[in-house]
Write a structure and sequence with these properties.
The complex is a heterodimer. By secondary structure, chain A is an alpha+beta fold. Chain A is built from 14 helices and 24 strands. In chain A, strand 1 and strand 2 form a beta hairpin. The relative contact order of chain A is 0.16. Chain B is α+β, with helices and mostly antiparallel strands. In chain B, a hairpin with a 2-residue loop joins strand 5 and strand 6. The longest helix of chain B has 23 residues. Classes of the chains: A alpha+beta, B alpha+beta. At the A-B interface, strand 14, helix 8, strand 20, helix 12 and helix 13 of A face strand 2 and helix 3 of B.
Chain lengths: 419, 164
């Protein structure tokens, strides 16, 4: 197509049970997504624990844009754009560090870590210039929820909590796994690049239909109980929280097992330190519930995937080029648990991961596949006739149903139609 | 210190071992490659530099012996989709050097390698520094440790599902 659809035309490409293949492959649509999604809605950027001390910084991204997340001397977290206000040179070339200021190597303009221009070389040439008008660009709105820092380039719009909506509770559920109620992002990121559109990744995260097939090679040899969670008789559900957020809720299966830490393939006895800290923090009954239920499997639109033991951040670079940034979740005050989380995560994900290398193979093959023009559509109708509402009114279905994809596309359409 | 003579003999044994390992990897001879490992083998492909602590930070691969075995068994299923069809591979290994002897008597060796991979996605070149600890077990050289430091391991990498 290579022409961005008018607002009224998105409905021709996005139907309730199918979407047009060009949505994944058309460069003009990708550019429109940058404007209407990535540079407008709330996007996950980083975690406060990545910049624990004053003057710490870490380089993150929103789509193809490089963003420096800093903690300034006052302790405030800033999201600054990595672009000198003079000639556009990148002011920061390291992934992380500790710095009060960033000096552009081109003409020595210097910016404090809260973005202010504090000096330039040979200032007599800038007589009368108001430095405050030449600060680093910044992400317009910055809000965090339980340490997860999100940014939005829209000056106005829903608050972060409004955007998270029903999915906010999944983050509450996640942080309870720390006896101190805090997630830490301290294990470093693997960066896994795929030659595929970002939405193949987004939709796969809560697709419960694929594991039995894409991951059969590892389930078979690892003596894994994961396969059954995604089988035909599983009682786990897929959920659409609205605003594009989706979940695979495995709790019904874990509650049937009624065994603490079974969700993680282990037992209380193997994690004595963690178990006792959890009981001390939450009391016997609640600690048991938490450790039976397991951590959430939730995709926060458009780019934060909390995948039970690890988290992924999806970064689109081009219509057919994406990066999955992934790290083990770490829970404050849970050293023995954290070690296992790192070990499991390293085995599963990243470029050589026993799971994710196969998912990524599917993304790339799907991307090449949709370049074929017939059939024009991606069919997403699985479980449409058996959707139901849960007690909070969110749509749920069988774990293998395509409720998450339908929810993502409904929200996508509303964002793309917005002006 | 080894005498010059025994050093030359050791160098040629080590070189032959490393060439053989490279060929087994290129030709996807998974079981023969696995048999090169000692029972306490560690296979490590760090991310984000050469000096991270793999016990604290994420690595691309940080396999103990049982996970090496799991990785091989997965490949042997024939349903490891990212290796079905298999990547076509050829690698050059060079700059083989004996390093200082290890306290446990293991032989420390380093080499450089460049791997050409052709797979469904595209053709990719991988370059790495490889560090080994080798050991004689029942008269045969075995790997107790292999660390593969990819030159570009600080960047986002495409899938790396063949044996590097």
């Amino acid at each position: 197509m290579n022409v961005v659809p008018r607002a009224s035309q998105w409905g021709e490409l996005i139907r309730p049970d199918r979407v047009h293949g060009s949505l994944y492959s058309d460069p003009a649509i990708f550019e429109a997504e940058l404007q209407n999604i990535w540079y407008r809605t709330w996007v996950y950027v980083g975690h406060e624990s990545e910049v624990p001390k004053a003057n710490d910084y870490v380089v993150k991204s929103i789509g193809p844009q490089s963003v420096i997340m800093t903690r300034d001397e006052q302790g405030k977290v800033n999201l600054l754009l990595n672009r000198c206000s003079h000639r556009g040179n990148q002011v920061c070339s390291y992934d992380k560090g500790n710095a009060r200021s960033f000096t552009c190597p081109f003409h020595s303009w210097t910016f404090s870590n809260d973005g202010r221009l504090v000096g330039y070389a040979f200032p007599d040439g800038y007589e009368g210039q108001d430095k405050s008008k030449l600060a680093l660009g910044r992400v317009t709105r910055v809000q965090s929820y339980r340490g997860f820092v999100f940014g939005s380039f829209a000056a106005e719009g829903p608050t972060l909590e409004e955007h998270l909506g029903g999915a906010r509770e999944t983050i509450d559920r996640l942080v309870r796994f720390s006896p101190e109620g805090e997630v830490e992002v301290t294990a470093g990121f693997l960066k896994h690049r795929v030659k595929a559109n970002w939405k193949f990744i987004l939709e796969n995260e809560c697709d419960g239909y694929h594991p039995a097939f894409v991951h059969s090679s590892i389930f078979g040899v690892a003596d894994s109980a994961i396969g059954k969670l995604y089988g035909g008789t599983s009682t786990a559900v897929t959920r659409d929280y609205g605003n594009g957020h989706t979940e695979i809720d495995l709790r019904p299966e874990f509650r049937k097992r009624d065994a603490p830490m079974s969700w993680f393939g282990t037992t209380e006895e193997r994690l004595p330190d963690y178990t006792s800290r959890m009981k001390a923090a939450y009391g016997e009954t609640q600690a048991r519930e938490i450790m039976i239920d397991g951590t959430p499997h939730v995709m926060i639109f458009p780019n934060l995937f909390i995948a039970e033991i690890q988290m992924f951040v999806i970064q689109p670079l081009a219509v057919d080029d994406s990066v999955q940034h992934v790290t083990a979740l770490q829970f404050k005050g849970a050293p023995d648990m954290n070690r296992r989380l790192r070990q499991q995560t390293m085995g599963s994900v990243g470029p050589a991961g026993l799971l994710l290398a196969d998912d990524s193979e599917m993304y790339e093959r799907c991307h090449r596949g949709v370049l074929a023009r017939n059939p024009e559509w991606i069919f997403l109708g699985r479980g449409e006739k058996r959707e139901r509402k849960d007690e909070l009114g969110f749509k749920v279905g069988h774990v293998t149903d395509e409720i998450p994809s339908r929810g993502i596309w409904r929200h996508y359409r509303s964002l793309m139609e917005a002006r | 210190m080894l005498s010059r003579e025994s050093s030359t003999t050791l160098m040629s044994a080590v070189t032959a071992f490393i060439y053989r390992e490279a060929r087994l990897q290129d030709e996807h001879q998974y079981e023969a490659w696995e048999a090169l490992w000692t029972d306490d083998g560690i296979y490590w492909v760090p991310a984000n530099g050469a000096d991270i602590d793999p016990e604290k930070e994420m690595s691309i691969i940080y396999d103990n012996r049982s996970r090496i075995s799991l990785r091989i068994r997965q490949l042997l299923t024939g349903k490891r989709h990212t290796q079905t069809p298999q990547s076509r591979l050829r690698r050059l290994v060079s700059n083989i050097e004996l390093l200082d002897e290890q306290p446990e008597g293991d032989i420390a060796v380093a080499s450089n390698s460049m791997v050409f991979e052709s797979c469904l996605r595209d053709d990719t070149i991988w370059a790495a520094r490889n560090e080994y600890r080798l050991r004689y077990v029942d008269g045969e050289l075995r790997m107790a440790y292999k660390k593969v430091t990819l030159v570009n391991n600080e960047k986002a990498l495409f899938t790396l599902s063949f044996l590097i």
